[in-house]
Amino acid sequence: MSQFNMSKVQIDIVSDVMCPWCIVGYKGLESALAQLAPGIEATINWLPFELNPQMPSAGQDMQEHLVEKYGISELQSVQNREMISQRGKDVGFDFNFAPNIRMINSFDLHRLLAWANEQGKQHALQMALFSAHFTDNVSLSDDATLIKIVDSVGLDVTAAKGILDSDDYVAQVRAEQKLSMDRGISSVPTFIINNQYSIAGGQTADTFKQVLTEISQEIQDK
């Protein structure tokens, strides 16, 4: 596919920072796009989803949470983490599931991501949050930690503090969550391409490559 025939696609990724499959799926997409470049050019937009909207701000031990929520044993929980860690290695992401890793309420993270999108830094912040949570095992329920992450991607620290201390972006995040629910999305990650096509789950690069190639061909044929 030549540059002249390049297809441009919009990809909305419905995601929660607390979801390991979201970063696994994204890295698969990233690999597929690299292989398809420059024939396909994608604009990436992250949309909010809360895996645990009722979770208290302090969060819960991740293993305890998974055992309670999904009815699995502690052994199954450990095995799941080992499988996810391997998938992470396969796509170039380092999962470091420390014993004290916690599942938290992610609403404030989504508010910061909505703001970062206006600053052209949403993707950078999303990646930094995934790494902080799953690789570095820092607590994302701590405002001071969030401010450091915001600063690390070049966002304004004072503005971020103002958001965390207010109700800014609450309405926007709620509206975007409702839009996803209205679309019938009930799990993450979900990748919506050109508002028409949907791919769910932490798919491989080959799967994304196949789907994006088919969509690109449809675009070229119109």
Shape, principal axes of CA atoms: globular
- Helix percent reads 40-55%
Overall CATH architecture:
3-Layer(aba) Sandwich
Number of strands: 6
User: How many strands, what sense, and barrel or not for the largest sheet?
Assistant: 4 strands, mixed
Distance between termini?
Answer: 16 Å
Which fold name is given in CATH as the topology? Glutaredoxin
How would you characterize the overall build of this protein?
This protein has 222 residues and is α+β, with helices and mostly antiparallel strands. It has one domain (3-221): Glutaredoxin, CATH 3.40.30. It has helices at 20-36, 62-70, 74-91, 107-118, 122-135, 143-152, 157-164, 170-182, 205-221; strands spanning 7-15, 40-48, 60-61, 102-103, 190-193, 197-200. The strands form two sheets. The chain has a four-stranded mixed β-sheet. α1 (20-36) links the parallel β1 and β2. α1 packs parallel to α3, α1 crosses α9 (205-221) and α6 packs antiparallel against α7 (157-164). The longest helix has 18 residues, at 74-91. It is globular and about 50 Å long. The two termini are 16 Å apart. The mean pLDDT is 93. It holds the Pfam family DSBA. GO terms for molecular function: oxidoreductase activity. This is DsbA family oxidoreductase.
